[in-house]
Every structure is written in C-alpha cells, then in structure tokens.
User: What shape does this take?
Amino acid sequence: MSDVKGSAALRATLVFNLGTLGALAADRFAARVEELGLKPKHAGLLAALDAGSAASQQELAARLGVAPSLIVSLADQLQALGAVERLRDPDDRRRQVLTLTPEGRRLLSRCAEAAEAADAELAAGLDPDRRAALAEGLRALGARHVPH
Amino acid sequence: MSDVKGSAALRATLVFNLGTLGALAADRFAARVEELGLKPKHAGLLAALDAGSAASQQELAARLGVAPSLIVSLADQLQALGAVERLRDPDDRRRQVLTLTPEGRRLLSRCAEAAEAADAELAAGLDPDRRAALAEGLRALGARHVPH
DNA sequence: TATTGTTATACTCTATAACTATA
DNA sequence: TATAGTTATAGAGTATAACAATA
Assistant: This one.
C-alpha cells in the first residue's frame, strides 16, 4: 500500500464531509426561512436568545462566533420584524439587552419547523437507525465546540 | 406539551447541526490548507479530478455545485501551481480537459493529511465508536447527494 | 443556432476600523 | 482610559451576464 493519500482519503474525513454537507444543509435551510424574511444567522440569534445563554450583544457575538457589528445588523432586522426588543441595562447603560418578543418566539418556532422539513428532505430514504445515530453524533460533537 | 417549538427543537435538527459544524470544520480545514496556497474549493476540485468523475470544466462545475466561471478561476490558480494541465479535447475543441499532474497528486495528498489533522483536533476526546458511527453516517448521507 | 470556456461586472456576506456614549 | 454599541468602509467569495471560439 502507498502512503500517498488520494481523493478517497480526503472523502473519508469528517471535515470534508461536514464541510460539503454543511454547505448543502445551510442552503436548504436558507431557502425555507427566506419566506420568513430571515437568513440562517437570524435563526441562530433567535435560538441563542431563547436558550438564554447570553444577553448583551458582545456576549452574543462571542457565542455565535461573529463580529459584534454583525449582531447590530441582525438585531436591527429582527427588531424591524418585531421579533426582538432592545432594552438598556440600567446597571450599565452602555449595554443593550436583547429579549425575544412573542413574535420572536413565533418566528423561532417557524424556523424549527423549516429545519425539520429540510431534515426530512435531506435524509429521505436514509435508514432511521442510521439517521438517529447521525443526529446523536452531531449533537455530541457540537457540544464539544460551544464557545465558553 | 406545547406545539410551539423553541431553540431545543431547532438544535435537535440535522440541518442546524450540519450547518454550524460544517462552518466550523470548513474554517479549520481552510486554515490548514492555506499554507499550501489553497482554499477548500481547490481541494474539492483536486479530489474530483483524482476520482475521475468528470473531465470538462462544465461537468466539474455541476459536480461541485458552483458556477462555471468559478472553475475557470480555480483551474487558473491550480495551473499556476503546476497542479493541473489543460488539454484541448481533439474531438471537440471547445472543451478543456483538466488532468492532475504529479504535483497535483502531491498537493491532494497534503490536503488529505490536513483534513486528517483537522479531524483529530475536531474530534479530540470523542468516543472512538461514536466518531466512527458519525463518519459512516455522514458518508451515507453524502452519497445520497452526489450530483448526477 | 447552441455550447464551452472566458472575461467583465455586480452582489452578498462579513470583518476591520473609526466613532459615540457611557463607565 | 477602557468598554458596549454603532457606523463607515473594505475585502473575500461567488454568481450573472456579455463575449469568443467552436460545433
């Protein structure tokens, strides 16, 4: 056997498959949330707010792994849709505390439905046991990469 | 129980986890192939050529799911690195047939090593059985989405 | 006239840097 | 002086459309 790795070696890796399938999944999901006036990053922000893991925009930027200026833009758009409120933190008036509105929770619910519909399309015909194992594996892997 | 889905429902989906982990994996891989002068799409093109699944630039564009004009740009850069050759198809002189050079195969091998190194980093501490199941599940899912 | 590859152009996404206000 | 948020600007990446060569 040769130690020169070809395309088969690359295709066997997690990063290659996660990268290609991730782009595919993101496109499918984006197409479905587009009619809600949202992009995937909006859904990520709504989910982070619902999970209550962060409040200030700086914390959210770190959580989502994006620049603080992008949070401003995403929050502006969600606010225009009536999905979030910005409240000045009375203890530190530099901080804007973002909170979900009922409309924001409704939109998050629609995003979850969109993701489930995209799942059904993506995994159509896949063995249910294998699909469950895949979901569990992804969840376990993702849990190791939550920003602190 | 409520039928209003929150962030937990979204985080349980394949598309959400594939999307977030895919972006993470792509970044890690990109950082490692950067020193080779390559981006992930270059690696994808090298792998497609090595697999022999396509020859003309139009076929490669369809295979990778990108615009034909992007193949021109990627092939230009790979040609400048001495990784691919462009040969006019004598049967149809409109066609440019791309072929890997020895240097191209060497670069592909380095890409595979970069992906394996990124895998080790990404899956560090993950149970080996779970990791194997994950790799197998991704491979099975990806096989369902190869462009025809 | 249709198709392959190429070039020219424009658009989307996101980061970096400068700025304002609060601390 | 340092930090949270905002605004202004710039860069990367990629698509679309116009073009040239060949069928």
Summary: Chain A touches chain B through 64 residues (CB under 8 Å).
